[in-house]
Write a structure and sequence with these properties.
The structure holds two protein chains of two kinds. By secondary structure, chain A is α/β, with parallel strands linked by helices. Chain A has helices at about 40-50, 70-80, 95-110, 115-130, 135-140, 150-160, 180-190, 205-210, 230-240, 240-250, and strands at about 1-10, 15-25, 30-35, 55-60, 65, 80-85, 90-95, 140, 165-170, 195-200, 215-220, 225-230. The relative contact order of chain A is 0.18. By secondary structure, chain B is an alpha/beta fold. Chain B has one domain (about 5-90, about 145-475). Chain B contains eleven helices and 25 strands. The longest helix of chain B is centred in the last third of the chain and has 17 residues, at about 445-460. Chain B is globular, with a radius of gyration of 22 Å. The chains are: A alpha/beta, B alpha/beta.
Chain lengths: ~250, ~475
């Protein structure tokens, strides 16, 4: 589904990604871990087309198409979804309205007919039920006055409604207490399917207790320095990133 | 350049859609302003002596006045009042009996503007008075309204058919010597709309005036007078457009609202979309308008809602004088400036009676090199026991070359009153736009959504049909402005 080859990117004049190689197949869940400043969020930004990042080398193919040539909204149309680390507030625009505009933009991109208000409401209500989303949250302005937990749940809710092919979760556990994290993880797990892939970016192993990955990659200084199964996360939890970094240095 | 800025700019560079010129023969008087011109206008309109006298009084007073340069943040070259035509009327000028007699070219113009003057074709209950250049060309649904005692006609017709009402209320809220532009209007006003809602009648449909400036080098000076008796209610809408012209055109209107009786209510909504000039600031309308309402009855209410997207310069402060005890004044405003537009707008709430209350919600949006100023006054007089005011002024900036300014003036002479003022300034963030794009929205849709969200509190005050119109208009006015 997703192939990243030798990806280099910089922010301002600072090289952040220095040759990432990664292949993600549908149905797989990949965790990307790494210390602060290793390039995790940059990777999410590059995959979704955020301006601030400049790709200097390498390629990214999504279902055979050159992702880097597409605008952010086209990538969304292709089925890439980013659950933001810091979801943005849009005052005065209700969650419902925003989401409907979003769903219909994506449908339009795919050449599908737009959903009318009734059909949309039906879809949203069904999804809200599955994710135990309180319906009043839908009537409130996008993320405005939401608690940290509500914001993250709202991201997962949007993900559920948009039914993307590739979900990128950028530090979805940050700022959440254990109960909120469990609720979010439960939502994510409900969306796991053989047709969908996920990239879960996180600092901590605790999220991976709840969203169990197929692969764990360790990112350090802009490169994937180690790849393993779910056990790798536990190892990192026990010993930290330093041994891996040290290992790198000796290579 | 960042995409945010690019989109903001694309948004801002969208062409003005209403800039066409209709080929309609007009009868105009020569350029220039003098006592003779005032007399000529009055004669053409077959006015009674008292009205001519009133005009002349205004004209003479005007000649002693100086063009105001009120605020340092609004600048424009001097207006040449002698190089302007003060009266232009589409031919033929005979009294029209039905729409069939209206010039087809004119009907086409209004159709193009989305205003159908054909009652059969109108789906919604909105009665329209169409004012083309200086005169009213058609008023719809008149018969139906008359059955309920509601008078809705052009100002000229009101002068002929209801002189006692016009005489009683003309200048009663905005006196002839009020300010430079109102005084000029009093001398040369050409036409406008008149509405009278009798005691106990809730006007069954929205009344609406659509103003169109077509002729060149012509000023438009219309006057609107709305009177509501005890327990009566009316919702009134006003829309305006003009062709694209290189030179600036002056629009100096006066609107007077009188909530006479106890419990009377007037809701006045404006979607102002005069030609704003091109992106370099060439051409456009100078919109120098005086709008004021008096709540005379106990428990009466006047509510102004305005969406201002057009004009090179907008200068207007729709105001409420709250005389009756328990009367209520409201002002909801969205003002957008793009390119080199300047807007200095706000309101005045004058609390005279006891327990009077007022609400001000102002949303200013600046894009391009637009300058947007909120200027408002809240005045609580000595006798206004327990008066309350709440003001909220929010500004949204798109890009980094525009400006937003807020000047609230508060004057309180009664200690039992409560006055609150809140203000905020925000910028559409790259983060907001990227968030929307990541959800599949184009940059333009994102900006339009964010701006509409920002204006929501005002749009919800507009009649449904107008709210849809206003949202579209904001989208268009901003096009070429974000990313």
């Amino acid at each position: 589904m997703l192939t990243i080859r030798n990806l280099h990117a910089k922010v301002a004049d600072k090289d952040i990604l220095r040759g990432i190689n990664l292949t993600v197949k549908s149905g797989e869940v990949h965790a990307i871990m790494g210390p602060n400043g290793s390039g995790k969020s940059t990777l999410a930004g590059v995959l979704t087309g955020k301006d601030a990042f400049e790709v200097t080398e390498g390629e990214v193919l999504f279902e055979g198409k050159n992702l880097l040539d597409m605008k952010p909204e086209e990538r969304a149309g292709e089925g890439i979804f980013l659950a933001f680390q810091y979801p943005v507030e849009i005052p005065g625009v209700t969650n419902n309205y925003f989401l409907r505009a979003s769903v219909n933009s994506v449908r339009k991109y795919r050449g599908e007919p737009e959903l009318d208000a009734a059909a949309f409401l039906k879809l949203v209500k069904a999804k809200a039920k599955v994710l135990h989303m309180p319906e009043d949250l839908l009537k409130r302005a996008v993320n405005e006055g939401f608690s940290g937990g509500e914001k993250k749940r709202n991201e997962i809710f949007q993900m559920a409604v948009l039914e993307p092919k590739l979900c990128i979760l950028d530090e979805t556990d940050s700022g959440l207490d254990i109960d909120a994290m469990k609720a979010v993880a439960e939502g994510v797990n409900a969306l796991r399917s053989k047709d969908r892939a996920m990239i879960v970016i996180t600092h901590y192993q605790r999220l991976l207790d709840h969203i169990v990955p197929d692969f764990v990659h360790v990112l350090s200084e802009g490169r994937i320095v180690k790849t393993g199964g779910k056990g790798l996360a536990l190892e990192l939890e026990a010993h930290g990133y330093d041994p891996i970094k040290a290992g790198m240095a000796t290579v | 350049m960042t995409t945010a800025t690019q989109t903001i700019e694309q948004f801002a560079n969208k062409e003005y859609e209403w800039g066409f010129v209709s080929d309609i023969e007009a009868e105009a008087i020569p350029k220039g302003l003098s006592e003779d011109v005032v007399r000529l206008i009055s004669t053409k309109k077959k006015e009674p002596q008292w009205l001519l006298d009133w005009r002349l009084k205004a004209y003479r007073y005007w000649t002693t006045m100086e063009e105001p340069r009120w605020w340092p943040n609004v600048t424009f070259p001097p207006v040449d009042y002698q190089n302007m035509i003060y009266y232009s009327a589409p031919k033929p000028k005979k009294q029209l009996k039905s729409l069939d007699e209206v010039d087809p070219e004119m009907l086409k113009t209004f159709e193009k503007l989305g205003i159908s003057l054909d009652e059969q074709k109108r789906l919604t209950g909105v009665a329209v008075d169409a004012v083309f250049d200086s005169v009213s060309v058609a008023t719809t649904f008149r018969g139906k309204l008359a059955e309920m005692g509601v008078i809705f006609c052009s100002f000229s017709e009101a002068v002929q058919n209801h002189p006692e009402l016009v005489k009683k209320y003309l200048g009663s809220v905005v006196p002839y010597n009020d300010n430079y532009f109102a005084t000029l209007n009093s001398a040369v006003f050409s036409d406008g709309s008149f509405a009278y809602i009798p005691k106990g009648v809730r006007c069954p449909m929205e009344l609406s005036t659509y103003f169109r400036i077509n002729a060149k080098e012509t000023g438009q000076f219309e006057r609107t007078l709305i009177v509501c008796e005890e327990g009566a209610y009316v919702s009134y809408l006003e829309g305006c457009t003009a062709p694209i012209r290189d030179e600036n055109q002056l629009h100096a209107a006066v609107v007077e609202l009188v909530s006479v009786g106890e419990g009377s209510q007037i809701k006045y909504s404006t979607v102002q979309n005069w030609y704003p000039g091109d992106k370099d600031g060439k051409g456009g309308i100078y919109n120098f308008v005086t709008k004021r309402g008096a709540c005379r009855g106990r428990n009466s209410k006047i509510s102004w809602t305005q969406v201002e997207t057009g004009s090179a310069i907008t200068w207007k402060y729709p105001s409420c004088i709250l005389i009756g005890d328990d009367s209520v004044g409201e002002f909801y405003s969205v003002a957008l400036t793009n390119h080199k537009q300047q807007a200095d707008t706000g309101t005045k709430m004058i609390h005279v009676g006891k327990n009077t209350s007022s609400t001000i919600v102002s949303k200013g949006i600046s894009a391009g090199r637009g300058q947007n100023t909120y200027r408002g006054q809240v005045k609580v007089l000595k006798g206004a026991e327990n008066a309350r005011n709440y003001s909220q002024c929010d500004s949204l900036l798109l890009g980094d070359k525009c400006g937003a300014h807020t000047f609230p003036y508060i004057e309180v002479k009664n200690t039992s009153s409560t006055v609150e003022h809140e203000a905020s300034t925000s910028k559409i963030g790259e983060d907001q736009i990227f968030y929307c794009k990541q959800r599949g929205l184009s940059a333009e849709d994102a900006v339009s959504m964010i701006v509409n969200g920002f204006c929501k509190e005002v749009f919800k005050e507009l009649p449904m049909e107008f709210a849809v119109e206003a949202k579209k208009l904001l989208g268009v006015s901003l096009e070429g402005s974000v990313g």
